[in-house]
Automatic annotation (TrEMBL):
Descriptive protein name: Isocitrate lyase/PEP mutase family protein
PANTHER family: CARBOXYVINYL-CARBOXYPHOSPHONATE PHOSPHORYLMUTASE, CHLOROPLASTIC (PTHR42905:SF5), PHOSPHOENOLPYRUVATE CARBOXYLASE (PTHR42905)
Organism placement in taxonomy: Bacteria, Bacillati, Actinomycetota, Actinomycetes, Mycobacteriales
Keywords: Lyase
GO MF term (any one): lyase activity
Source organism of the structure: Mycobacterium paraterrae
Keyword Repeat included in the entry's annotation: no
Lyase found in the keyword field: yes
SUPFAM superfamilies tied to this protein: Phosphoenolpyruvate/pyruvate domain
CDD domains found in the cross-reference section: ICL_PEPM
């Protein structure tokens, strides 16, 4: 498949060594606004797409084809602005990962992000995450790298090992994924400034950092992240959170209800607005049946 101007733009931006700031986009209007305000890149947030496009929490309920079609629409609106696209775990086994990469590449994304969580995954800033073996995820990366036909399509490897296994393991995995060929490395949810600094020092690859409002990671300035050597900073919840606040304000004004009763402060509270508590209760109700198999 021939390359695209957006992919060339992202590669060129990465080569400059300047921090790439990518706000979260999840629908047509956020993509239009990203382009019209002159953003250098945009990030297709899986959480935002799940919530805004399907009324679902980010707990592995949206499918590969649903995400790829959303990516296609966003790419069409963004034009030459590169789209970094969340692809969760790749949506299944190794052959599913191959299909996912093909779908995303055909949609025109500039970068595809894959993570080492067990399926079904959870938002990186929720509790109770689990990860697959590092060797298993390296096979996922191999499949993804083999599946792309345009080398300008960046493959981003994310590890969620910090929460369940600790920072030492997360850094070991990050370096292993870099050796396996990932173009960019993403250590999800460091929990302090010291951890952000340690990742920058010890991971030998271009780095992406995820800055989520109300999440586990302290929000560092672009200037400081640039100084530390980070390559990409994504802000998935910034436009989403502001949009939700505005909509809640409008709804509450109409019927005189108190916005404070609904405002989310943390990711879990946001996902409860789109039914996470009910979905997790349903999941728990089926757990005894699954263990009985």
């Amino acid at each position: 498949m021939p390359t695209t101007p957006a992919r060339q733009n992202l590669r060129a931006l990465l080569d400059t060594g300047e921090l790439i700031v990518a706000p979260g986009v999840f629908d047509g209007i956020t993509a239009h606004l990203a382009r019209r305000t002159g953003q250098t890149a945009a990030y297709m947030t899986g959480a935002g797409v799940a919530a805004s496009g399907f009324g679902l929490p980010d707990i592995g309920l949206v499918t590969a084809t649903e995400m790829a079609e959303r990516a296609r629409m966003l790419v069409g609106v963004l034009d030459d602005v590169p789209l970094i696209a969340d692809a969760d775990t790749g949506y299944g086994a190794t052959i599913n990962v191959v299909r996912t990469v093909r779908l995303y590449e055909q949609a025109g994304v500039a970068a595809i992000q894959l993570e080492d969580q067990q399926f079904p995954k959870r938002c990186g800033h929720l509790e109770d995450k689990n990860v697959v073996d590092a060797a298993e995820f390296e096979w996922t990366l191999t499949a993804a790298l083999d599946a792309r036909t345009d080398d300008n399509l960046l493959v981003i490897a994310r590890t969620d090992a910090r929460a369940p296994l600790g920072l030492d393991v997360a850094i070991d995995r990050a370096n292993g994924y870099a050796r396996a060929g990932a173009d960019v490395i993403f250590v999800e949810a460091p929990q302090s400034i010291a951890e952000i600094e340690r990742i920058a020092k010890e991971v030998e690859a271009p780095l992406l950092i995820n800055l989520v409002q109300g999440g586990m990671t302290p929000v560092e300035s672009a200037a400081r992240l640039q100084e530390l050597g980070y390559a990409i900073a994504i802000h998935p919840s910034n436009p989403l959170g502001r949009a939700v606040f505005g909509m809640l304000e409008g709804f509450c004004e109409l019927n005189g209800s108190d916005i404070a009763d609904h405002l989310p402060g943390r990711p879990a509270e946001f996902f409860n607005l789109v039914g996470m508590a009910e979905w997790l209760e349903l999941d728990t109700s089926y757990a005894p049946l699954e263990h009985a198999r």
